Amino acid sequence: MLSFIWGLFLLLNSATIGCAERVELFWDICRLNISRDGYSTWKSMCVNNAVPIPPVHVTQGDVLVLNVRNSLDVPTAVHAHGIYHNYTDYYDGAEMVTECGIPQGENFTYIIDTTNQVGDLWIHGHAHSQLTDGFRTPFIIHEKIKPSTYDEEKLLYFEDWNERAFKDMVAIDAKLKLADFPPSYRTMLINGVNANTSKSLHFEPRKRYRLRIMSLSTSSWIKFRMPGHTMHVISKDGVEAV
Q1: Predicted model pTM
Q2: Tell me: the pLDDT tens digits for 188-213?
Q3: Strand partners of residue 102
Q4: What share of the chain has pLDDT > 70, as a percent?
Q5: Facing residues of 240 across strands?
Q6: Distance CA 132, CA 231 (A)
Q7: Whether the Cβ atoms of residue 156 and residue 214 lie closer than 8 Å to each other
Q8: Which residues, at least 6 apart from 106, have a Cβ–Cβ distance to it below 8 Å?
Q9: Strands 119-125, 239-240: parallel, antiparallel or unpaired by DSSP?
Q10: DSSP states of 11-52 as a string?
Q11: Hey, which residues does 96 pair with through a beta bridge?
């Protein structure tokens, strides 16, 4: 009886996924010696030998199939921050909580169903402080029907950054006997790069814009404002506010 119920569940689940669009990505997790803040150079986390990691865009109802290859010298795991994972917690990507992590040189495929969710989420590493070292990117689930309350939209995301890898910063703080954990961050990245080299956002008069403002930071708080303009919060962490 139990096997029949489980088989029925798999059949229904497959039927639901079969009606959605399939968005398939291939990620080779790596490190790349690069200067992201314009001052310091060290081995930042990367995907497919590229930095910053491109944002992931899907439409509500799509199924994201994320094929991951671990090219690091330590295990890794990938967590879609904000996804419910009802009955699919084995795809949650929390190392030593819902999985053991992906060993060095091995592969794993995450399947993320977005049927019941919409909004601005993010994907990040969930092992060995890899999030702090740059393994993070926006995960945008767009509405099936675009709201008519705005003309265009812009994505603006922030990351706290330091001049060394996380493990090195912790070692320095411990040596200096600083009670600063996690270590304080000295730089802020905008859309994955130094603010001095990030692309400008262009706005046209008499248009209404949707700003997707996201903090992908480890521990830093972000204050954002646009002097001379009135902004209205319409959603927060994927939940509508109006």
Answers
A1: 0.84
A2: 899 999 877 888 889 999 999 999 99
A3: 76
A4: 86
A5: 235
A6: 30
A7: yes
A8: 69, 70
A9: unpaired
A10: HHHHHHHHTS-EEEEEEEEEEEEE-SSSS--EEEEEETTBSS
A11: none
